[in-house]
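tmp note - Cell division protein FtsX
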Amino acid sequence: MRLFTVKRHIKDSFRSLKRNGWMSVASVSAVTVTLLLLGIFLALVLNVNKLSSEIENDVHVRVLIDRGTTKSQKQHLKTELKELKDVATVQYSSKTNELKKVVGHYGSSFQMFSGDDNPLNDVFIVSTTEPEKTITVTQQARKLKYVTIASYGGTQAKQLFKVMHTIRQWATGFTILLLFVAVFLISNTIRITILSRRDEIGIMRLVGATNAYIRWPFFLEGAWTGLLGSILPIIALDFGYSWLYRITAVQLTSFGYSLAEPRYFLFVLNLLMIIVGVLIGAVGALISMRRFLKV
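out:
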């Protein structure tokens, strides 16, 4: 295809978007809503999978110590933990060290919480003789004095898998429904364009224009619709996920976990939404062309 022809097809596709006005806006809006929900769903599922994997591989019990506990009381608690059955080792991690982990995961902005403003707890990290013993040790540790909470991977894993299953069921069904709506609206937009240019298309066919030549502007129109519909979801998810990543930093790191790092994660998610958006638009255009470009 010559460069002049490519430029003409691109120009015609933009002209058609402008000509259809509110129908184009409706199509772009449908793609926007679809991709926004799809992006939220993917971000949730991917992070739940990441957290579940971390939890499953975590064979330690994290024992958060009550704030205000004295040094001698901590030593007494450590002794009690060592005396528990099936405990292999007990390591102490101060709240200052826990904050360093937060800063390492989420950036230097969390250094403002140093000193008396540190909201984290001192922690005893208990290793068990066997991974399956973490449940028993956790239950025993929770009963000890000066313990705020004792947690291990199993409890959170069960809860996360249950939540993930529910998210997958509802979000998948709803997203598929929205994908059909988006394709339907885009195909109707292209259909109106074809009908309004039916005489022009007929003349083009009479003078020898191929099916491919006639189809390209409509195909590009659908692709532009999908691309435009991906812009707002990308912006919303980038800001929303970065904000969520920051506010969950302290809570998740307290339990030894973290969300997916935004830089690479959002790049992949944004690229995926652009591809899906363009595909939705292209499929909508193809559906219309199959029905109306039969001469």
